[in-house]
Amino acid sequence: METAATARGIASAVSPPDGLTSLQRILLESVFTAMTGHSVPLNDFEPLAAADLAEVLRLRNLAFRTRIVQIMLLAALVLRPLPESVVDKVGSCARELSVDESLIGVARRFASGSLGLAAVDFERNGYTAEWRSDSASELHTSKELATAWDLAVDDSHLAGRWSELGQLPEGTLGRAVFTLYQTRGFVFPGLPGSAPPLLAQHDWVHVLADYGTTVESELEVFAFIARANDDMRAFSLLAMVISLFETGYLRTGAGLFEASPGHLSSHDGVAVRIADAMRRGALCRDTVVGVDSIDYLHLDWFAIAELSVTEARRRFGVVDKSPGAVAAGSVGPWDREGMSEFQRRAGRQLAEHQGRPYEPNGSGSF
Fold first, then answer.
1. Residue 7 — φ and ψ, nearest 5°?
2. Which end of the chain has fewer CB atoms within 10 angstroms, the N or the C?
């Protein structure tokens, strides 16, 4: 069976000298179950060489083969330390599959300890590699941004647009995003202390895809975003958050995030949740435009802010979470577990400052 052989090939490539780690095994098994519907146990498997994997996948197109290499990278990037032998095996598989995946170079930097150079390589070869200052009109900034993750902290027009979302009716996507900010004390883009406008785009996905705002939920959101986009460079977004929130290979990312290692390995359920987020992202489709690839960070969210959350999910084909992901702890933004205690305190302080009661779960209508 192709699925079982592919799983063996990936596991063979990413296994350190002592064999797959528990996290790697759970992650790969979860990804294969979510993406193929087939369970492939990897606690004991027969190794498959790179050339043999290439033979198994010889009829698959380049996009499919690239996804296979990216799954290898995902399972390799959770290793700390990352053995150079693992990077070599992944590189060998990429060559056999005729895949040119630039993030293999980033993994090699990690393995050699060149973490600063790896961070530079992320920017040069990843999702934001072709950023142009005039290519982000959907962010609605008053001034062009020189780099993708630039801040915009003195843009009253931008801040006003975000603030006006609070005037939309209950149940709309825009009103839900406004509530997300209010309940957590987040600062609207355009004001001091806010996130970069490009990064703020992902906050809409928290509502659209029903994910909380803890670090574990951030991993889900970026897995969803990365897999929804058919541009293979979007995988770097998932690689970035893994390198921030599991291994700490990156100290900072996306102009705001800071390293907080160990969240993927904190319990087995996080891997299940990430795999399900990838599945949900892969199934997305913009039914209005008629395309299967969606770049959620480059959507004009304000243009659809008046849609109900249900209508927005229907437009983009957002399917429900799997029962397994829910059982593993995947929560929405309005669940108590869907925000950190720090966010809860910030939301309470903002409510006190604005002279209103604090409602941590929003209005309950989403």
1. -60, -40
2. N
Structure tokens at 57: 């996948």
Crossing angle for the helix pair 197-208 and 173-184, nearest 10 degrees? 110
What is the Cα 84 distance to its own chain's centre? Answer: 26
* 3-class state of residue 214 by DSSP: coil
- String of DSSP letters for 235-276: HHHHHHHHHHHTS---SEETTTEE----SGGGSTHHHHHHHH
Which residues lie across from 253 on neighbouring strands? 257
pTM exceeding 0.70: yes
- Structure-token pair, residue 188: 């609207």
Q: What is the pLDDT of residues 158-204, one digit of tens each?
A: 999 999 999 999 999 999 999 999 999 999 999 999 999 999 999 99
Quote the pLDDT of residue 131. Answer: 87
Tokens of 281: 């992202």
Give dist(CA 187, CA 192) in Å, integer. Answer: 8
Residue 172 pairs in a beta bridge with 308
β partners of residue 286: 291
SS3 114: coil
Structure tokens at 366: 């989403």
Tens digits of residue pLDDT in 293-316? 999 999 999 999 999 999 999 999
Helices 22-36 and 62-76 cross at an angle (nearest 10°) of: 150
For residues 192-226, one letter each, b for 16 or more C-beta atoms within 10 angstroms of the residue's C-beta and e for the rest, the string is eebbbbbbbbbbbbbbbbbbbbbbbbbbbbbbbbb
Other residues' Cβ atoms within 10 Å of the Cβ of residue 311:
14
pLDDT, residue 366, reads 34
Alpha-carbon distances, residue 239 vs 63, 73, 225, 245 (angstroms): 18, 8, 12, 10
Helix 215-228 / helix 269-282 crossing angle, nearest 10 deg: 30
Q: Does the CA dihedral 55-57-63-68 come out positive or negative? A: negative
